[in-house]
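Hi R.,

As promised on Friday, here is the backbone we talked about, encoded as structure tokens. Could you run it through your design pipeline when you get a chance and send me back a sequence?
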């Protein structure tokens, strides 16, 4: 197929690919994003979406799961296998835990359940754009603890620390802001866009899991410190 024509990107403009076969969704979404000044291409079936996405020119890909031909999960897996670095937001037909887990496992950066508000979609896209900028930064290091935003891996003394996506975001937040104290509410805000099952009470469990997994990799100190009455911060490096 022909290579998509992309207009030059301005400072405010993003290049966005929408892969969606329902015109009742694709038309208003595309119109709203163009109104905001973004350059947007629309593909209405899976193989066309994959062909467009593999060009690697898009900042964000909005990807439906149920598509004619190749489904969204398979497209996402192939793009990540090909090292396409575009941020991917999966559009799910239902807000089910299995869809969310499958989307993240396939390599998606976020998901949004249908029906959705155009304002919320725009906010998610802006958040992904900010996250993409952060992930272009080099590996974060705190003593012998290393966090790679690009590969989304954590190691301690080069031993892998197998964090869940929610645990990864919490640790990344603390490592990017080593002197800041985060309340449970603040940490919940960081993960709420893709983990709607997590509440403030579950943040404590995620922190406990991070500590346990880092210790299992060989650390003699907890990576996260409690601040009485305030929340959590990154602990002193080992």
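Update: got your reply. Pasting your designed sequence below so it's all in one thread:
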């Amino acid at each position: 197929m022909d290579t998509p024509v992309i207009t030059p990107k301005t400072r405010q403009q993003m290049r966005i690919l929408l892969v969606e076969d329902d015109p009742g969704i694709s038309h208003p979404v595309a119109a709203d994003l163009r109104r905001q000044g973004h350059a947007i291409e629309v593909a209405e079936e899976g193989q066309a979406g994959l062909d467009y996405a593999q060009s690697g020119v898009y900042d964000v890909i909005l990807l439906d799961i149920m598509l004619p031909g190749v489904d969204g999960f398979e497209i996402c897996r192939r793009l990540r296998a090909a090292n396409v670095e575009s941020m991917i937001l999966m559009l799910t037909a239902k807000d089910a835990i299995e869809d969310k887990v499958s989307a993240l496992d396939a390599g998606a950066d976020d998901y949004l359940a249908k029906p959705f508000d155009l304002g919320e979609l725009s906010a998610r896209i802006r958040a992904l754009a900010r996250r993409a900028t952060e992930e272009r930064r080099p590996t974060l290091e705190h003593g012998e603890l290393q966090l790679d935003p690009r590969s989304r891996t954590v190691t301690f003394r080069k031993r892998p620390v197998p964090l869940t996506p929610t645990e990864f975001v919490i640790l990344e937040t603390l490592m990017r802001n080593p002197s800041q104290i985060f309340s449970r509410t603040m940490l919940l805000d960081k993960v709420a866009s893709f983990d709607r099952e997590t509440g403030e009470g579950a943040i404590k469990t995620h922190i406990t899991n991070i500590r346990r997994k880092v210790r299992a990799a060989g650390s003699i100190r907890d990576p996260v410190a409690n601040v009485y009455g305030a929340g959590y911060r990154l602990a002193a490096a080992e």
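One thing I noticed while checking it: The first strand starts at residue 15 and ends at 19.

Thanks again,
M.
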